[in-house]
Amino acid sequence: MSDILALTIPFFGIILLGSLTRLKGWFSAADGRMISRYVFFVVLPPFMFVAITARPLNDIFNPEFTLRYELVTLTLFVITFMIGRLILKLKRNEASLFSLNACYPNYGYIGVPLALLAFGDDAAVPMAVILVVNNMVLVFLVALFTRDTDSSSSGPMFARTLLSLLKNPLLMSVVVAIAFSASGLTMPAMPALFLDLLAGAAAPTALFALGIALVGQPVRAAWGELTALTIFKLFVHPLMMALVFLGVPAFGPQPFDPLWIKIALIFSCLPIAANVFNLAEFYGVYSGRTATSIMLTTLIASISVPAFMYLIFTVIPG
After folding, report:
1. Residue 192 sits in which domain range?
2. Domain holding 189: CATH number?
């Protein structure tokens, strides 16, 4: 428990610092949006590039594991999108970000250090699989579901969706990282240091911008949505993942490595990623409720994640 708190308290501390500076009047809501754009366009792409290229491309090739993990992601995204549209009466782009909140775990700021703490370097390969593929799938889904449906728009749907993807620096950084890894090239020391410095700014800057955005957000007005997001992200997501990996044996000749299953289950029970806030700001929708849901799920996760980890280590041997 103390190890979990050692990870989450600094996380909250930076968010709180951003909120305090907003309350003090040092930063405005517009300043927070500007910082968020800096995060999304300048420092998050190097963060993704460095994370993906840190492992050889052949290390992240595990088709059945990837298919099962992404099947859960896709199913949960579609279910929550329909709930957002039909029950919560959200607009299409709002429902897309609502679904992204329900599906996007906090890999970078909590998941990766937590897995390394629990399993050491052995966790690197399954983490790489999830980070590479799941980021691409989620960014593609949100770009697809937030596309402009105005009848006055010209061009086919596919072209508009592709243009939206090409404008998304986060997805482009993933594509470039995979291409670079596939090329077999080695990054020279100077540009590698340049990217590392930028990537190091991603976590604290994103959390600081999130704290600025939290001030003045109406929690009661969106209590139904926040409750639904908390249930889906912290409880439904890991239960669906457990059903897929523990309820159905591997189709191949070898069973899944227990370590890989543990990583998948731990990642699925994490709170909402701070990156979702940056995506919401990028698309100009649902950013306030996203900021609040990140804080709420992270608070609750300080209790729920240790509980799930205890169950995971108890149920899965090895």
Report:
1. 2-315
2. 1.20.1530.20
Find out whether 92 and 145 touch, Cβ atoms under 8 Å.
yes
If one counts the domains in the chain, the total is 1
pTM: 0.75
152 pLDDT tier (thresholds 50, 70, 90): very low
Least confident window among 89-103, 216-230, 240-254, 300-314: 216-230
Closest CA to 233 of 291, 282, 285, 304: 304
The 10s digit of each residue's pLDDT in 25-55 is 999 988 988 988 888 889 888 887 887 787 6
